[in-house]
Amino acid sequence: MEKDSKIYVAGHRGMVGSAIVRELRRQGFDKIVTRTHAELDLTDQRAVNGFFENEKPEYVFLAAAKVGGIVANNEAPADFMYQNMMLEMNVINAAWRNGCRKLEFLGSSCIYPRMAPQPMPESCLLTSSLEQTNEAYALAKISGLKYCEYLNRQYGTDFISVMPTNLYGPNDNYHPTHSHVLPALIRRFHEAKEQGLEEVTCWGDGSPLREFLYVDDLANLCVFLMQNYSGNETVNAGTGKEVTIRELTEIVARTTGYKGRILWDTTKPNGTPRKLLDVSKATRLGWTYRTDLEEGIALAYQDFLSNPMRAER
């Protein structure tokens, strides 16, 4: 990318998209095109085609998605599949038809099998069954990355994909039941402290292992890959380090200042037992993360405190 390249960031108001915009601006890219959902419905093929025909972006970061935690994915799998597949196919297809020089598709580590080898290499994709609690979302993301791969093979495009681990940071969704685990915990422990509760009950038994990446680190990788990587195989984005959900809750409790007891509701699902990405490919390309988990959670908590309206979503 050149500094005056026209760059479209789809999903610029979301956690990932807004971080990519921040990173692009930090690096001196100022010709950034954005559209809100009200201005452009990405599930509307005609509208998306019209946007690309008029704007002709040279580079596209596809960070738009319908996202949610275990509860949201279980409650509305049809919605998650339809909306994600429609917006992905529309944007990727329009980028190809309008001569976009390069597109980067943002997926999720949930694309990998439930019982994948750990840490999970990019090559384990589609080798066995998916985690049922987020299968619909995973299938949509797999379709998006495969469509990029097929366009590369058939038409010689330069469309790449990156698969992040669990993300957190500024502009996250802190909804108590429809958010991902870390922002949900931040809100829960903050409110417990404010209300003087003696105990907080968390889902499952706390044993699952998870990896977390600060969203600004992901954005840095996304821009790095746009400038330094081409290929059909996706690139994993993570830290290569993992923590149990129990340990995570303890960090969040310390960060928020909560002093009460932490209980576990084992009637609720744990989700995938372990999710650790093999990040050796990104490392070989010359990239590594910068923000440690405790530092990142402290930054995320400050974002939560400074954005009270976001906490109500």
Walk me through the topology.
Layout: E1 7-10, H1 15-26, E2 32-33, H2 45-55, E3 59-62, H3 70-75, H4 77-97, E4 102-106, H5 135-155, E5 159-164, E6 166-168, H6 181-195, E7 199-203, E8 209-210, E9 212-214, H7 215-228, E10 235-237, E11 243-244, H8 245-256, E12 261-265, E13 274-275, H9 280-285, H10 293-306
Parallel strand pairs: 1-2, 1-3, 3-4, 4-5, 5-10, 6-9, 7-12, 8-13
Antiparallel strand pairs: 8-11
Helix pairs in contact: 1-7, 2-4, 4-5, 6-8, 6-10, 8-10
What does this structure look like?
A 6-stranded parallel beta sheet has the order 2-1-3-4-5-10, with helices on both faces. It has a 3-stranded mixed beta sheet with strand order 11-8-13. Strands 6-9 form a two-stranded parallel sheet. With 313 residues, it is of the alpha/beta class. The chain starts with 6 loop residues before the first strand and ends in a 7-residue tail after the last helix. The chain has helices at 15-26, 45-55, 70-75, 77-97, 135-155, 181-195, 215-228, 245-256, 280-285, 293-306; strands at 7-10, 32-33, 59-62, 102-106, 159-164, 166-168, 199-203, 209-210, 212-214, 235-237, 243-244, 261-265, 274-275. The relative contact order is 0.14. Helix 1 (15-26) crosses helix 7. It has 10 helices and 13 strands.
